[in-house]
Amino acid sequence: MFCKQDLKRCAVLIPIVIVIGLLAGCAAKTADPWGDPTTGLILQYRMTEGQVLKYLVSGEQTQNMEVMGQSIDTQSSSESGFSVKSKGLQEGNLLLGVTIDSMSINISSPQGDLSPDTSSVLGKSFDMTLSPLGKELDVSGAEAIEYDMGAAGKRSIGSNFQAAFPDLAGKPVKIGDTWTSTDIITEKTDELEIQINFESVNTLEGFETVDGLECVKVTADVTGTVVGQGEQMGLQLAIEGEVQGKGTWYFAYKEGIFVMDTTSISTDAIISTSGAQAMSIPMKQEMTMETKLVK
Fold this sequence. Notes:
Elements: H1 4-29, E1 35-36, E2 40-41, E3 52-67, E4 70-90, E5 93-109, E6 112-114, E7 125-130, E8 136-138, H2 140-143, E9 146-148, E10 154-156, E11 178-188, E12 192-210, E13 213-232, E14 235-252, E15 257-274, E16 279-293
Antiparallel strand pairs: 1-2, 3-4, 3-16, 4-5, 5-6, 5-7, 7-8, 9-10, 11-12, 12-13, 13-14, 14-15, 15-16
């Protein structure tokens, strides 16, 4: 038979049990937001408000065209640095302030060498909206930032940021899992408008530490198309071709930040001209590009 003291103990025990249960529930709710490698990682961009990241992008490109039996080769290299500052969330998406820190372009062709003056873009800033899965929802502020390409007219930096961040899976992923992402890059000059449609099949290959950050390593098989039209030197031009390539990128899943990407792309296209000088010009391009977190 219970005595009054036993009842008191029970009265004390019941709220203690309730508190323990509540604490256990809270512990379950505060599990790692990135999930678990064995059951599936939840990959999301999670920059904290006020956080600043700096990236360096470098690229090399070769291009060959066959014009009336003559081979024309062009080489170019570029390097640019930009800073990304998180301005917090906006309707569930990341609002980022982007500043252009550096930019240089060098082009070598049979017509000579060209290094456009890019000083007009240095220090310029714009806002972009990025979804937690890496979709560039709004980069319109970059379209107004331009530099002069000489005879080729002015060029916007907008296309540099239309696919700047890798797209994440949108589902828990383990080693060996794949997901497909798509990107569209549109580049406009005074004379031409070119659109490149990419499709990437991404595979989570494993884990690797990059600059002290524990990252997932993802490989990407890239395919796509390129179409364009415009007028140059009085000739109407139409461009049509195919794109293929491979990439490897790294994402710090605990911090929720993009760390590095290396991609190689090949393009085979035909440039068609119309009018009195109608012709079809085969064009081949090979491009490698690396984007790396430097701070």
